[in-house]
Write a structure and sequence with these properties.
Layout: E1 8-12, H1 17-28, E2 32-37, H2 40-52, E3 56-61, H3 67-81, E4 86-89, H4 100-133, E5 136-141, H5 154-174, E6 179-186, H6 203-212, H7 221-232, E7 243-246
Helix pairs in contact: 1-7, 3-4, 4-5
The chain binds nicotinamide-adenine-dinucleotide (NAD).
Length: 254
């Protein structure tokens, strides 16, 4: 598998879950992966583990809420490697669950700052770098909560709807510059966000989600990574502006 041989890929939220699985898969497909995350220790360990498996990876600590840091990272990638071919803007947080009237402005702002403005902060310098090169592929992580409502998660759902709007608009603007921009919309995936210490689900909540799912299981992070790899490879050369649902059929019912 060498779909990304010689390519430079930048992945945010790369220390854990979907970002880590995608870093592993892209490195196995031949890319040099710049893994960025807020969590320095987990990020260093993650990059070391990709390298131990024979991939090429470097870790950079990044807070996607910091616009300047996002621009500086993209610039440093282009300076060091000469080009940026692929970007996966994936860092995200879930917030907590409550009725919309109880979400509160602090939670709303915190979730929007990371999930939506964080994607914007990364996307802008990536578009500039890729426009100069006349090519590139970008995937932004939305969610099935970005294609429909998610009771108890108003801020999260609004942020992910925003990611889809931003993705579609950028796709329209940059198609003529050779840049494809897509959103991936995971369903319930087994990561620290759903089953670990960052989980917003209580046991019964998650059990209900699993038993309502057509496949009766959570998705694996690698199953999202496969879609992201395809969207970033030349195999999807006519695909842009899409919202690509990977949810084991959860949103298929009427
Ligand atoms: N797990 C799911 O069921 C699911 C479903 C739909 C969408 N998603 C989305 O997938 C993405 C990845 O989530 P995951 O499930 O792998 O969760 P995760 O918690 O395992 O990973 C998220 C990563 O983002 C990093 N991060 C958080 N805030 C950051 C910031 N300000 N700057 C840089 N990095 C930051 C965290 O340190 C962590 O490593 C998120 O955008 C999430 O909303 C997840």
């Amino acid at each position: 598998m060498s779909e990304l041989a010689g390519k430079i890929a930048l992945i945010t939220g790369a220390a854990s879950g979907i970002g880590l699985a995608t870093s592993e898969l892209m490195a196995a497909a031949g890319a040099t992966v710049v893994m960025a995350d807020l969590d320095q220790e987990a990020g260093n360990n993650a990059a070391a583990s990709v390298e131990r498996s024979g991939g090429r990876a470097v870790f950079h600590r990044l807070d996607v809420r910091d616009a300047q840091a996002c621009s500086a990272l993209v610039e440093s990638v282009v300076e060091r490697f000469g080009h940026l071919d692929v970007a996966f803007n994936n860092a995200g947080i879930s917030g907590s669950t409550s009725l919309t009237e109880d979400q509160g402005l602090e939670l709303w702002q915190r979730v929007l700052d990371v999930n939506l403005t964080g994607v914007f902060h990364c996307l802008v310098p990536q578009l500039r770098a890729m426009r100069a090169a006349g090519k590139g592929a970008i995937v932004n992580t939305a969610s099935i909560a970005g294609t429909g409502g998610a009771a108890g998660a108003a801020a999260y759902s609004a942020s992910k709807h925003g990611v889809i709007g931003l993705t579609r608009t950028a796709a329209l603007e940059y198609a003529k510059h050779g840049i494809r921009i897509n959103a991936v919309c995971p369903g319930y995936i087994e990561t620290p966000m759903t089953v670990g210490d960052r989980s917003i689900f209580t046991g019964p909540h998650l059990d209900r989600a699993v038993s309502a799912a057509p496949m009766r299981r959570l998705g694996r992070p690698q199953e999202i990574a496969e879609m992201v790899l395809w969207l970033c490879s030349d195999r999807s050369s006519y695909v842009t502006g899409g919202q690509h649902i990977v949810d084991g059929g959860v949103t298929a019912s009427c």
